[in-house]
């Protein structure tokens, strides 16, 4: 059985923003669920809720297409990442 560790909402949220900040291109929720390092053990519905929370608070922007909604980090998300998210993730990973 695979290791199904559940991370805090904050850790998962920050990991998503870190990935989007580095990638710099829109991605789908499926892409986030399967490609963001370290969070693949999280349930897809939980990832979906977190992405929705990030969008609601202005950290990511949704881009609608005919078939899929893509998400990209907003300037507000980049600013937050540069200020405190990177420090938090570095700290958590050092433990």
Radius of gyration: 13 Å
Number of domains: 1
Average predicted confidence as pLDDT:
88
The total of beta strands comes to 3
Structural description of this entry:
The chain is of the alpha+beta class and 95 residues long. The chain has one domain: Arc Repressor Mutant, subunit A (Orthogonal Bundle), CATH 1.10.10. It has helices spanning 9-23, 29-35, 44-56, 75-94, and strands spanning 27-28, 60-64, 69-73. A 3-stranded antiparallel beta sheet has the order 1-3-2. The protein is globular, with a radius of gyration of 13 Å. It starts with 8 loop residues before the first helix and ends with a helix. The mean pLDDT is 88. InterPro entries: WH-like_DNA-bd_sf, WH_DNA-bd_sf.
Question: In summary, what is this structure?
Answer:
It contains four helices and three strands; from the N terminus they run H-E-H-H-E-E-H.
Secondary structure elements and pairings:
Elements: H1 9-23, E1 27-28, H2 29-35, H3 44-56, E2 60-64, E3 69-73, H4 75-94
Antiparallel strand pairs: 1-3, 2-3
Helix pairs in contact: 1-3, 1-4, 2-3
InterPro entries: WH-like_DNA-bd_sf, WH_DNA-bd_sf
Protein name: ArnR1-like winged helix-turn-helix domain-containing protein
Organism: Nitrososphaera viennensis EN76
């Amino acid at each position: 059985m695979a290791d199904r560790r559940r991370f805090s909402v904050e850790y998962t949220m920050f990991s998503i923003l870190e990935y989007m900040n580095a990638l710099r291109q829109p991605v789908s929720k499926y892409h986030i669920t399967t490609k963001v390092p370290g969070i693949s053990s999280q349930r897809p519905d939980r990832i979906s809720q977190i992405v929705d929370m990030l969008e609601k608070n202005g950290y990511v922007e949704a881009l609608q297409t005919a078939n899929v909604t893509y998400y990209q980090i907003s300037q507000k998300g980049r600013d937050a990442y540069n200020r405190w998210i990177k420090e938090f993730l570095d700290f958590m990973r050092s433990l």
